[in-house]
Amino acid sequence: MTDPDRDGRLRLTIIGGFLGSGKTTWLRHQMFERRFDAAHVIVNEAAGTPVDDSLLSEAQALTVLAGGCACCEGATAFQDALLAICDTRSQIADPAARVDHILLETSGLADPGAIVALIQDHPILIRHIVVAQVFVVVDAVYGRDALDSQPLARAQVRSADHLVLTKTDVATPADMTRLRHVLRLLAPVANQTGATFGSPVPLPDLGPAHVDDVLAPLKMTEPAIVACQLDLGPAPDWTALTLWLSALLHARGNQIVRVKGVIASPAGRLLVQAVRNTVQRPEVLPRSTPATGADNTLVLIGSGISQSSVSRSYQITAGAGPHSVA
Predict the structure, then answer these.
(1) Which of 223, 297, 315, 326 has a C-alpha 20 to 30 A away from that of 36?
(2) What DSSP element (H or E) covers 26?
(3) 161, 143, 120, 110: which is closest to 299 by C-alpha?
(4) Are 271 and 285 in contact (CB under 8 A)?
(5) Crossing angle for the helix pair 112-120 and 151-158, nearest 10 degrees?
(6) What are the DSSP calls for 138-198, one per residue?
(7) What's the pTM?
(8) Is the CB of residue 235 less than 8 Å from the CB of residue 264?
(9) Is 140 within 8 Å of 167 (Cβ atoms)?
(10) Distance between CA 323 and CA 155 in Å, rounded?
C-alpha cells in the first residue's frame, strides 16, 4: 500500500554483480520469501537471447531487456522500459493499486553507478524514480579473482549499499575472510551478508588480515577508498550544505564514489544520496521512519579525501568563509 508520507516516486532497487556471481538465484529466493513483494522486475541480459527471465516468471510484472547492458548499449531500451512503467502507473487512479517498486537485475557486465547516473540525468525519470538500494552479489569462490583482474568488478562493488557473498558453502573460511577484507577496502560502509542457493547464511568473522595479502593485487591500480563522516550539527544550514556538496562533487566527482545521509530540513527529514558526481533529488522520509543517531550525518566514500579535509571544507562553507572543497 502506498505510504501517504512518501514523495510519490517509484523506488528502484538495483541488483548487480559480476558474471556468474549468482544474482538470479539470490533474487529468486528473495522473491519466494516475499522480501520484494509486488515489485515490477526488469531483467537485463547482455546476450541477445534471454535466459534468466524464465527463472523469474513468478514475478508480478516482468520486463526483459536483452542484447545490451542497461548502462551502455541497452540504455535507450532501459529508459523506454522505465518510462512505460511510469506512464502505466500514472494512469491508475487508486494509489494503493499502483506498483511502487522496481527491481532491476543487471547483466554481469553492467556498472550500477552508471545506471544511477542515467536515471539522474534523464529529465523525466528523475521526477518519477528514486534509487533506493544497490545490492551487489559477489561469488565467494571466484570473486577475488574478478576483483583482482577486472576494473568493472571493482566498480560494481564500490557502488554497493549491500554486498551479498554467494556460494559460501564451497568457499573456505580463510578465502572468505580474505575476500571480505578486500570488499571492506573497496566499499568500507557496505553491509556484508552471506547466501547459499539464495538462503542467508552466517559469514566467518572478519578478524585481522595481513595487509600485504589483502592489498597486493589491488594497490598497483587502485587508490585507497575511505569513508568519512561529516557531523552537520543539530540544525544544518540546508543552503550551505547543498552549495558545498555541489562544489565538492564538481571538483572531486570522479573520486567520490558514494554520498549518503539523512538530514533535517524545513521540508522534513530528507534522504540525501549521490553516486559519483550525480546527486539524486532528496527524498522526504515518511514521518513514521524513526530517527536515529545517524541523523544529520553525511557519509562520503571515495579516494583522495580525508576526515579532516572534508570537515574543514564544510565548516568554511557553512561559516561563509573563503570557498573551498576537500
Answers:
(1) 297
(2) helix 23-32
(3) 161
(4) yes
(5) 60
(6) EETTTHHHHHHH-HHHHHHHHT-SEEEEE-TTSS-HHHHHHHHHHHHHHSTT-EEEEEETT
(7) 0.72
(8) yes
(9) yes
(10) 31
Q: Across the chain, which distance is largest between two alpha carbons, in Å?
A: 59
> In terms of Cα–Cα distance, which of 324, 250, 249, 321 is closest to 298?
249
Q: How many residues does the chain have?
A: 326
Q: What is the DSSP letter of 39?
A: -
Give the three cell numbers for residue 151. Answer: 576494473
Q: How many C-beta neighbours within 10 Å does residue 314 have? A: 24
**What is the per-residue pLDDT for 301?**
75
Distance CA 107, CA 70 (A): 8
Cell of 110: 553492467
Number of Cβ within 10 Å of residue 6's Cβ equals 15
- Between the alpha carbon of residue 73 and those of residues 10, 28, 253, the distances in Å are 24, 26, 24
Neighbours of 224 (CB within 10 A): 13
Q: How many CB atoms lie within 10 A of CB 119?
A: 21
| Residue bearing cell 561563509 | 320
C-alpha cell at 185: 577496502
> Distance between CA 90 and CA 82 in Å, rounded?
12
Determine the Cα–Cα distance for residues 260 and 282; give it in Å rounded to an integer. 10
pLDDT tens-digit readout, 132-163: 999 999 999 989 888 888 888 999 999 999 99
